[in-house]
Structures are given as C-alpha cells and as structure tokens.
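Problem: given the chain below (279 residues), write out its structure.
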Amino acid sequence: MKISDVKLYLTQTQYILLMKLMKSIPKILVASPEGNAQAESALPSSSDNNGTVSSSSNQVVNLEPELRVASDVDRTPAWTTLDLVASVKVVKLHLYDSLATREENLEDHGIARFSLNDSNLRYKSICDGAAEAQVVLKSFTINNTRPGVSKFREIIPAADHDRNQFMVLYTASGNSSVAILTVDSPHVIFAIEPVIALLEFFTSAFQQETPADIDSSSMTESQRESTQSQLDFRLDLHDVSVSVLENDADTNSQAIRLYIDQILLSQQVRPLLSVASMY
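Solution.
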C-alpha cells in the first residue's frame, strides 16, 4: 500500500481525548476468562514420544531481534496471519495548544510541525500471538510554529546525508518484547520555550489523578501482570548535535553546543549506557 501525502492537525484537547480512547479500547476488546478457557481448549495439541501433550500456544519464538519461529518435527509449524507493508511519501503533523478551539485561531496557538519523509511501515503477526513491527524514515524534520519573531524555526533540520535517519524495530512474543531504535545524525537547534510547550503537550494526557476508590485487589493484580511482562530496548544515536539558544529572536544569539559521536543505551537485564565521545 502506497500513500503520497498525509496532513494531520491535532490540538491538545483532541490529543487528550485520543489517548483516553486508546486506553479504553483494550479494556473493551479484552476477552472474558470463560472465552479464554474455551479458546485454549479448542487449540490443536501434539504429543511427543513420551506422551507429553503440548499446546500450540507454547510455540517457541526467538527474538534475535528479527522474529524467528523455532519449530521442530513434533510441532505444527506456525503461520503468518498478517503481513502488512505500507509506505507514505510525506506525513505532516501540526500540533496546537489547548487554547486552539476553532479554525480561525489555529495559527495563533501553534506549537510545532513534524514532517516525516519517505516512511515505510511493516507489520507481521504469527498465529501464536508473536508480532513484529518495523518503521523506517528516510528523514524527518521538526519546525517551531509558535507565534513570535523567532529567527530559528527549524528545531530539527533536514538530514544532509542519503542514509535512513530513523529506524525502529519492535518484536513481541508472550511476555517478552524487544524494541530497537536507531537515529542517524540528529541535529537539534532549539530554545527553551518550544521544548517546554512540546513537553506540556505530550504530558497533558497523563496528568489525570488516579481515582481513590480503586480496588486494592485489582491494583495488586495489575502490578503482578506489569512485573511479568518485560520490555527490552536498545537506543543507538549516531553523530548527535544539540544547540541550545539563549535568544531565538536574535540571529547572533549565544548558544551552548554539544557534539556526541555515538550514544548507546540498552536495557536487557540492567540498564547500560555507553558514550563513544563527547565534546
């Protein structure tokens, strides 16, 4: 599936409603215990030479990090249930603050504009519940759209190389999942105000207070489930350049510049941070 151009406009109020909807959908679609029991009883099973019965839900999946199905002679091979590939030429996302209530005042309450160029998405799922998702961006830019006289509108300018600038690989099987994020040559130029506006936008959906009448048993069960599931991740940044401006309205503004050749942050058993060089 190929799509040429996509333009999206999202206000802070719409973002909060969207996040609430995303939290509600899994609760609606979750299966009841009776239905899960019936589904497990309907799964085909296979017996080994010792007479041991193994269900197809126990299919072994290796995360290396690509999704690999380990099946032997005694097991029914797993099959792909969905293999989706989509590519989009340009995706532009405009963000607006909470005061943007109608189309006439959108320009007065802009925050930032994201542009994703040559995006490729692939999603693959297997019958045993394992899944793999891959996102590759040729380049991406972020522009400051806040009203004012800023002379530096490009927060992240376009990349000056022909390599893929942003890559994400996510694989999941059972209670284990692996996410690998690689960013090549992210050059960031920003003042404090746009960053604060972006942080306020993205954290606004998570500032709701937890209700006081939550059942303690349900809290214990949710905590137990969260400890059982594990997300391993690896973050790899190459050729990082960060410039913090004192005054973005002045073309000759003083700035603090930080250059890093490579940053590698990995969490598997314990967090690991490695910095190649920094100056």
